[in-house]
Amino acid sequence: MSSFGYNMLGFGGYPNRVNLNFTQATGGTITTSGNYRFHTFTSSGTFEITNIGADANVDILCVAGGGAGSASNDSNGGGGGAGGYLEGSLDLSATTYSVTVGAGGAKNTSTANGLGASGANSVIGTINATAIGGGYGSNGRGSTVAANGGSGGGGSGYIQDNAGGSGTQGNSGGLTGYGNNGGSLGSYVADGGGGAGEAGNTNANGHGGDGRAWSGNSTTYAGGGGGGYGGTGGAGGGGNGYQSINSAGNGVDGTANTGGGGGGSYQANGGFNTGGSGGSGVVIFKYQYK
Asked: What is the reported pTM?
């Protein structure tokens, strides 16, 4: 018996052949590499499996939006935490999976407290997998500690050394979760946000935690934002904190569709500068198609 099925008539009346031994699906931006097909979602949509092959295994990456970096008058703002990171391989069925891609946390551009926003969750329906948005960095005023999130935001520096947030990403929907705490060293340089691979400040004071490389495409995602006054962003899309120590300035945005946290800003003499916005998340499905 032939292993090939037929769907619709193709060009010239000849049928298009689909090998039913392999998985077929629609949705997202579709690319191929070797015998594998990738469906990449950089915005919300639907992943529909129309045929499950002999091997029903699908590799999945789900990353939430990163948190924004922050700052306030005469203070150095903490870097934003990376979006929560989920990965794994599951045997899926021929059905429809809703996909929500979380937005990055917005920078604060309107008030002197400079407190940014946390990132939004990314969700895969049917398997009920939720990657948690990254926490915003501390603004260094009052008792405003950094927010908890998939990875926690970094603590502030200089005027008031507020603590970093906790990484809260756990396993979800059969996928393994990764997230880490924001830095909380308490120094002139503000703390880096946590990344999927390590906590903030692991490599150096103010450094955003590095993200994690997905085995599906060897790309690193979910790096934490660097703290203001010289902290660098973590590998995987984390934005740098403002780098100069001689003048005030803005933090750098996290990279879109990586879940990277935004960098913190450095402010002085009553001025107002912004932390960087968090990078939006991403969801990817990978399977063998031939």
From this structure: 0.91
